[in-house]
Amino acid sequence: MVSNVASFVGIMRYEFRMQIRRIAVWIVPVLLIAFQFSLSRMWLPNSLDTSWYKSFFRHGEFERMLLYSSALLAGNANLFLPLGVGILMADRWVRTRSALVEELVQAFPVSIGARILGTYLGNVAATLVPVLLCYGVGVAYVFWIARDIHAVLYGILCFAVIMLPGMLFVSAFSLAGPVFFGTPFYRFLFICYWFWGNLLRPGYGVPTISRTILTPVGIYMANGFFGVDIIAGSGLMVVSPLQGLESLLALVGTALAALGILWGFACWRQRRC
Question: Which pTM does this prediction carry?
Answer without folding.
Answer: 0.89
